[in-house]
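README: folding subset

This subset contains proteins for which both the sequence and a predicted structure token string are available. Records are stored as plain text. Below is the entry for GDSL esterase/lipase (359 residues), shown exactly as it appears on disk.
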Amino acid sequence: MIMMIKKILVLALALTPLLLVSEALDIHQLKQIATRHNVTCILVFGDSSVDAGNNNRLDTTIKSNFHPYGKDFNNGLPTGRFSDGRLATDFIAEGFGFKNVIPAFLDPKINNEDLLHGVSFASAGSGYDDLTANLSKVLSVPRQLVYFKHYKIHLSKYVGLKRAEEIVSNAIFVVSMGTNDFLQNYYLEPTRPKQFTLEQYQNFLISRLYTHAKTLYKLGARRLVVVGVPPFGCMPLVKTLVNQNTCVESYNKLAFSFNSKIKQKLTLMKTTIGLKTAYLDCYYAIQDAVSHPLKYGLRECTKGCCATGIIEYGDTCKDMSTCDDPSKYVFWDAVHPTQKMYQIIAQKGLQSIDENFLL
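--- output ---
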């Protein structure tokens, strides 16, 4: 089984963590509250769930800057987002009253105005474990943090040091990653299994999250949102690899366990680091969408829109045919959600935000 997975997973897996919601604030209220508490922008770190195109500039095979990716993005142009259109973070930025897309920091077309509203440093194929990123030649979290330092320098030159510090301290930092650490690293490569049991590896990843959070705090972050991993046993690709039509329970149990550890660590961060933290639960959201697609206006939840929908993503999805209506699908390819699903996720995520987090 491992050999079969290794042959197919030639690209780094990056699954989108989804934002779970409870009905609370409407979008208009959210904009008012964000303005009242001087929320300035959204700064994003992570994997393909939030990579807006940084990998386009890297010497890596983990890319999506080709058709049919971007089919529903503005003029139908691929941007490097692993979807047919916008990502959840793009919709979230719009919900806060910023621009309707969060650009990639490495995008050569980025301008000074973009810096004011937030950027993404994320890199598809990355994870909490530096080895995960190194295996795919993408940006590890430490490298993403280096680019964040560059961002601060550019911002200071544009608005002055004092204003730049205010923008950063009032920003919302979003961290979204973790799936690659398990599916592309631990389950495929020999290094980590020799060093850690699965339980120990989870704890190792949590320790890395904690270290990264402390670094972000030193660099000016005060509000941190961490998105949990989804039930990756429900990914069409994973189900195909284990020859199963339903979600793979063992993988989902692992995701659930890891998310529990994230929540515990976030609580600790409030007292030990001084960060305001929030946890966005992806587990229930994607599981519920897969189990009850009609509830969300969706129709197809077992396969992706690209090609056969059960195995293709990234390079293997390149120039392939797609379904007629992606807005009826949960998944765009065999790994990543559609723009429609991202929009649903973002709307619910925005409604779930606690005003205390924005104080």
